[in-house]
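User: Batch of two.

Assistant: Item 1 of 2:
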Amino acid sequence: MLAVPTGSASATGNPRNKVALTPGHSLLDWIKLGKSGKDLTGVGGRRLDVTAEELAKHCSHEDVWTAIKG
């Protein structure tokens, strides 16, 4: 399994810096996954409009949502 970038989980402690991947994985694994054609969104490719309150409910390591473009 690849490491998921979160908060301060970067290799240097800076959340906007490099992320440490689990042993045995590299940047090429992320590139292959992104080009695999698989739906990585978890919502079937649909745009999902949510309120700020709903977004705030999904903040655990097991259930993280991210707002894109607002």
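Item 2 of 2:
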Amino acid sequence: MRRTFFIVGPTATGKSELAADVANEIGAEIVSADAFQVYRGLDLLTAKPDASILTKSPHHLVGTTPLAEEMNAEKYRRAASHAIDEIHSRGKLAIVVGGSGLYIKALTHGLAPIPESDSRLRETLSAMSLDELRSKLVELDAITARKIDMMNRRRVLRAVEICLLSGKPASEAVAGIPETGKSIEIPQRSASAAGGVFVYHDREELYARINRRVEAMFENGVVEEVRATGEVSATASQMIGFREIRQLLDGPADAGSISQCVAAIQQATRRYAKRQLTWFRRQTNFSPLNLSMLTHNEAAILLRMLSERRKFSGLRATG
């Protein structure tokens, strides 16, 4: 992770614009660490950086994966590591930007190998009810059952699948299954090797930014964007707002239902941001930076200084 600088934090903090300005100033390239912006399509729903931001510096892993394709932390780690290696081969600093904690942890720590999905087993498990899956997980791995969101069908199913494919509890197969906030650390890669900042806003300001962004999504046509989607993978369908808008499209889209949909997505996004804040506050290798205390230009200057220091220290270490 030398010559790599991380700008991480919750959704709607303005990370993308800040990172693009910094990268433009110092000739760096950006690697996205967003679990959903990696998908091609649904630009509004995923709050993908617009053209004015993307043209400031080269971006990697933004809109590169078809919506029908499954994505996971290990696939991301391989793709991001390849992109970072290529950036370094050009003598440039890589700036990793995003808020998907597990994807970022996959880069800074690595992940233990876990079994790939088995189509026949997945079909069998998919036919089971959520209650049946939960009971099965409690039977196979009570530790994981206590740790994960047992209302999230996808996570419960995957945990059961790991247990059955590996022949041991998921809590032993991996140190916490994906999205629980834990992963096995690879000994040769230390978290201290990763440098960067955890950016955030005061809670009320962050929540107001989230509310405005969701409203802007609807004003700019996110409903039609979702309507036009074709096949969507189980991973991609977990995007915040996708299920809510699909439900809106299945019913009468009157003013009341639209406002309810907006409110539901705002609430879900605020809850997601709260979980992100909790995650990153536990990551001791990233220095916190409260953007509510700074103007955009002040934050950009500070981040430029920190990232340049990272670049030159990396060059000395490799030189």
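The first helix runs from residue 15 to 26.
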